[in-house]
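Anyone else keep sequences and structure tokens together like this?

Example one:
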Amino acid sequence: MDMSLSTKSIKELSLLIKNREIQVIELMHAMLQKINKMNDALNAFITINPEAEAIAHEMDRQLALGNGEGALFGIPIGVKDMVYTRGMRTTMGSKIYEHFVPEKDAEVVKRLKYAGAIMIGKTNTHQFAYGPTGDRSYFGPMRHPYDTTKMAGGSSGGSASSVTAGLCSGSIGTDTSGSIRIPSAFCGLVGMKATNGSVPVDGVHPLSETLDCVGPMTKNVADNAILLDVLKGNHVGNPFDSHMTDDITDLTVGIPHPFFLDDINEEVEANFRKVKGLLRRAGVKVYDIHIPDVDKMLDAQKIIIAYESYQVHEENVNRFPDDWDPEVKERIEKSVQTKEAYTEALKRKYTFKEIFRTAMKDVDALVTPTISIPTPDIDQRVIHHSIGDGEKVTADVRSSITRLTAPTNIIGLPSLTLPTGLSNAGLPIGTQLIGKENDEAVLYQIGRVLEMQGVGE
């Protein structure tokens, strides 16, 4: 068994499969063997697809007949357990849905299957995706693949941990306040929250219907672009990937002030300074820009998610009061908001979008840290750390984790995180790129050039 297959990229594996240098079943066995070896420690998967091997055998038969189209043909992909999969249980990380088996696939799963992907299993999630730490699932906490005492991040922590550990070639997560980008940043992955509404959420259990997004989590930028193309409905080609170039000297990026660089841990800030220097050396023009009222955007985002999540979960909180993680239940019960406050927050979305459009009129993208603190321990809720000027501060873990990611959920802009270094403890640090509506290609282009410079090492 060639276990090195589990470390290869989607692009590499696709070429090996299509050139008949490896069999799909060979790749599947390598992944399943690694899951058997590592999943008890990581708790990344809740359910393994019992049909995965049979599907792999059938794909090899199709290849022998000269078939095998699709950008993801034979590639094992994990699916967050908020996303419905026909005939395979979908638990939402909860006791309430422990045995729920959907009758239909979510639209994104249909698109993955059409592109030839094999759903290898369902990845663990913070219960009902309502938490950024990834340590509140009915099935136990998701653990960091570098250090199992550390959180993998949430809510898509199982997706992140599984890809980093090589248990699947890529995974699908959901993102309402940063739940793709947060675990991707913690675990050293590339994660994309595309423009709101550009990837369908049909068949995804809702948390906050106006904020929820679905997106890819991968080892590198090119793989992320391939997956996003499929999720957007382009099943064969990969235009994001094919249009990326190594020359970004015609691009301009903005460093937004204030807010995005306030109260940043000193290790995160040092890493961000390095990234700015690398961008300048790559020929990118880097400017400081002013974006007001981001704190108000964050406040409005919290009102929207609180109101909408309560509407989703009110009935189950009342029907099954004992079947909740206490922390998640407390968040739901405290989520009661007036209809007036919610309506006002929705109205303000358009004002906030215009603020960003105005601020970004002369730049192609924004660059910020992804998370303001290093990776916390599992169950840690308060962190004591030093910010950029050496001042010692105490901060709430959950608020610190979502602070820099949540604003783009309310304004709907695409946001990409990629690994750009390591903390003193040897854990990944991420950088976030924010683009204009439907301009994911620019983010991939910038991310690829940073990746080529080895920033994540």
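And example two:
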Amino acid sequence: MDQVDRELLSALVSDGRATYQDLGAKVRLSPNTVAERVRRLQHNGVLTGFHAQVDLEALGRSLTLLCDISLREDVARGDFERGLSEVPQVISAFHLTGEYDYELRLACVGTDEFEDVIDVLKGTHGVRRLRSRLILREVRLSSDSLLRQPSKSSHRKR
């Protein structure tokens, strides 16, 4: 992956709907060359998809929460993870190290719905303990710094 690929990725992160012509103007390449580079980034697994960003509040889901989850000892991770698709309020899940097994991000209409989700997670999906925190607002950060090529001095010598 070269600097042009990194510039393409940065442009796509900013606007996943940019045309090859728009991208080509940004990186000074023809639209056909850009299309080939984007296909190569997809084929190599660097670019894994294009996603719409949804405003949860506009959908009436103004209560967003982070929930730390500990599973009961008899619950298999795979069963829990498959079961999450049955809980539509769960919008992301992370398997963790440390005190808790998972962190879930939930989007609920209100506290009554959140209480119902807690009951479902504990009653049906093997949750032993749950700690929740209300998200006041998300601070959006750019991933541009990840796309810059690491300098040689930032790598440890082994």
